[in-house]
Amino acid sequence: MTARIGVVTFPGSLDDRDTQRAIRLAGAEPVALWHKDKDLHQVDAVVLCGGFSYGDYLRAGAIARFSPVMEPLIEQAKAGLPVLGICNGFQILTEAHLLPGAMLGNDHLHFICKDQKLRVENAGTLWTSDYEQGQEISIPLKNMDGRYVADQYTLDKLEAEGRVAFRYIARGEAADGYGNPNGSLRDIAGITNEAGNVVGLMPHPEHAVEPLIGTGRTDGLPFFTSILKKLVNA
Amino acid sequence: MSRTPLDTVEHAAATPDVELPWAELGLKKDEYERVVEILGRRPTGAELAMYSVMWSEHCSYKSSKVHLRQFGEKAPQSDAMLVGIGENAGVVDVGQGYAVTFKVESHNHPSYVEPYQGAATGVGGIVRDIIAMGARPVAVVDPLRFGAADHPDTKRVLPGVVAGIGGYGNCLGLPNIGGEVVFDACYQGNPLVNAGAIGVMRHEDIHLAKASGAGNKVILYGARTGGDGIGGASILASETFDDAKPSKRPAVQVGDPFQEKLLIECTLEAFKEKLVVGIQDLGAAGLSCATSELASNGSGGMRVTLDDVPLRDSTLSPEEILMSESQERMCAVVEPGKVDRFLEICDKWDVIATVIGEVTDGDRLEIYWHGGKIVDVDPRTVAHEGPVYERPYARPSWQDTLQADDANKLPRPQSSEELKDQVLKLVGSPNQASKKWITSQYDHFVQGNTVLAQPEDSGMIRIDEKTGLGVAIATDGNGRYAKLDPYAGAQLALAEAYRNVATTGAKPLAVSDCLNFGSPEDPAVMWQFAEAVRGLADACLQLGTPVTGGNVSLYNQTGEAAIHPTPVVAVLGVIDDVARRTPVAFQEEGQLLYLLGDTREEFGGSAWSQVIHDHLGGLPPKVDLERERLLAEILISASRDGMIDSAHDLSDGGLIQAVVESALLGGKGARLVVPDGLDAFTLLFSESAGRAVVAVPRSEEVRFNDMCGARDLPATRIGVVDGETVELQGEFELSLEELRTAHEETIPALLA
After folding, report:
1. Quick check: B164 and B440 in contact, CB under 8 A?
2. Among A84, B2, B19, B305, which residue carries the largest CB count within 10 Å?
3. What's the domain range around B199?
């Protein structure tokens, strides 16, 4: 048996088909979910993918958060449904208060597209268990509003509870993938909720799943194999 | 409140003496008289609006048409061509049942007036052309030219253009995989913002812009129509800028990529369900263009009720509605029984769709407003039978002087130290420097099929996941070469794009071009144009790559000063399996570097002459198209058979530029030796065409040499991939760090 993993398409979603491909390459079955449909169709997990849902009008993720599909999603995520938010999906998760904090415009005020080095800070979530704790990976980053911010208390709490899932590796030259690419506080690239079922990050693991495509690395595939193993073995 | 009576067809016939502002709308006196003659009466205001935009240079190609015919007349026999010139974009067969459509267009004038929106809507327009053919857009490319890199206005125009291209293309989910960025003082005040796009479809999905079948409905869908871009086509694109006139800022359209993304998805869904008989996007000249072209390409006439057009601004006059260039709109012709389903799909994507008319069995285009008929024309006279000019042209008197000013006689470096300094200056000059600061603002990864993207020689996209079938595209143009000799310059642009495609392992198939020139009213410019078109058509015939479509941008000039003639050529290629692609970066130490082709003392128009001597004169490199074809065949075979691990075409900047780029991208140095018969200076900086440098694994050396020998392609061993420096034996050694600093810090220092 395999797992059915839903991918929500909002108006303006861009990486929905890429995410479905990544799920398929990992061996799971992708299920297309539609933003106007208030039904998750019994999927075992959901990915909110990247893009510019609703044109980023008002604020990235702010409108998508109120789409009909989000109602069952928020409810079930709180009950343990595995949810991964990538880029715009991460923004939607913070807008929906499934994850704390928010994303502001990049400190350099430009869109940035590059291969980015990250450190896996928490390999204990449902989406990261195929990584080693502390593993350094390289996956594409591409966004306009990627600067993670939260208040001091929240940041300290995230750190204390081990909920910083990914950090930009700040050492070295920004040119070769190192460095904090957008001014995110404490170099945070991604976080998890307390239960470890909801994970969000700005870089795009679904763009690093085939050796020939994009940066030529497959460092993003373990996201999808991690969740598949958890679901199949559950 | 008094109201002027509606200028209906009846009213126009009854009031022949009413003066209309034809000159303000960009028509010449004889053109206006021709409209009167065609109609047998004075035009209504709405008719005048339509004729004026459709007969503008931008829409009618009235100055260029007589020359462009050569692309058809001299077209090579090609089995690959499915749809040729005249449609929204050409379509090429790439095998396995797939067809690819691609096109390059200009958005030069708007991008100077309003860099962000001008560039953004340029992307939007070319992408709609691709959708209109029935294809899913899969990639964009952007050939750009700006004034001097250190000119203050470049810092206004370039960042805005780049942000506009990124802002629009990134939001559409289209990877940006190629293009160029060139600086030259000749583009000051006339930046060239060309945009290209590629789309993929199955053969059976090809759609055309025609309205057939009486009773079929005409549906306008997408954004509401507003006051933006009114008169853009006729006024902005057909006159040069003049500081004395009032600002034309409001004439530039404003784009909304989110709306366009919805338009893409809902159009593709409608295509999938076979709901569409004919389709046309609304670009330059808006509804005037879409209705007249759909009607004149089809078998019948068309009746449109303008009151039904959804408006953003309810005060718009019918003339303004017809001329509006509001973005993100399309027009589809749909059978009555399928209209409901079509509207349902639009509703699913939250796209506004309205039936605004129907196809009739007559041959007239009739448009109604408030119950009155305000347009009654033969659509062909609007869309296809505009004026055609045989503009006078003459070889400029200064051409001989320019060519006599031989760059080969410029002082050359006298010592190893000077040679080394010039290498650093060259690779760090704005034109040769890394454009990463620019390209990192574009998404290369979206859609998950990008095999190669800038700074590779060509962008490459996988189109079939199972078989690995892919397409490659490269755009090139060198205004300096074309200024020295427009005939050869256009051929060199084609040769370079063709070579770039082959260097990555793909077989060149077809061409699209964007011809950027000064004012056609200047006989010298017209001569440059005529020569460039003749050169390109001749070269396309010889290389077997037909022109499938493109665009002409004239009036790129300020006062008397025209830009360099700048034909930009895009070549599309196909590769059976993208796993065989050849990258630019050096892959492994110890691999042998071979220079393919002949190196002559050719410095006319070269980057070296520009960077070191600020000189432009002499003749451009010699064109040898048979050699280009042979080189391409060797590069493709070597890639297919695994004989080379990296390859880079040689063009502006010559061999040293290519080697430095391959070294920096691969993080591996090179040791070079000057081969017999050449001197160090010529080896490094000559820009002889028909050349590439390849890295051959030692195990393949014999096989590779045998292949080149059997085919008579000169292959000269010039060194080896090795170490952390680029070294020319006996002359100099430069560390990769030193080169990286020179190559990568120039552009951010100027523009960030």
Report:
1. no
2. A84
3. 69-383
Residues 6+ apart with CB under 8 A from A54: A10, A11, A12, A62, A63, A64, B258
Does B58 map to a domain? no
Provide the domain count of chain A: 1
How does pLDDT run across B600-613, given as a tens digit for each residue?
999 999 999 999 99
Reported ipTM:
0.94
Check which CATH number belongs to the domain holding B281 and give it: 3.90.650.10
Please report whether residue B250 resides in a domain: yes
B662, two tokens: 């391959």
- Domain of A150, in residue numbers: 4-233
Among A124-133, B232-241, B472-481, whose mean pLDDT is lowest?
Answer: B232-241
List the single residue in B with minimal CA-CA distance to A210: B448
**A21 vs B450: CB contact, 8 Å cut-off?**
no
Estimate the share of chain A in helix, then strand, then coil, as percent rounded to the nearest 5: 30, 25, 45
Whether B171 sits inside 8 A of A52 (CB atoms) is yes
Would the annotation count B107 as a binding residue? Answer: yes
Q: Which of A35, A49, A87, A207 is catalytic?
A: A87
Q: Is B73 labelled a binding residue?
A: no
Report the CATH number at residue A63. 3.40.50.880
Active-site residue among B107, B151, B207, B743?
Answer: B107
Quote the number of domains for chain B.
1
* A–B CB contacts, 8 A cutoff, strictly below: 92
Whole-model pTM over 0.90: yes
In a domain, B578, yes or no: no
Query: Is A110 part of the annotated catalytic residue set?
Result: no
Is there a contact between B444 and A113 if contact means CB atoms under 8 Å apart? yes
From A200, A181, A32, A48, select the one nearest A110 (Cα to Cα): A181
Q: Is residue B587 part of a domain?
A: no
Best interface-test mutation with B: which of A16, A53, A212 has the largest number of B CBs within 10 A? A212
Percentage of chain B exceeding pLDDT 90: 84
Whole-number Å distance between alpha carbons of B92 and B546: 10
pLDDT average, residue stretch A19-40? 97
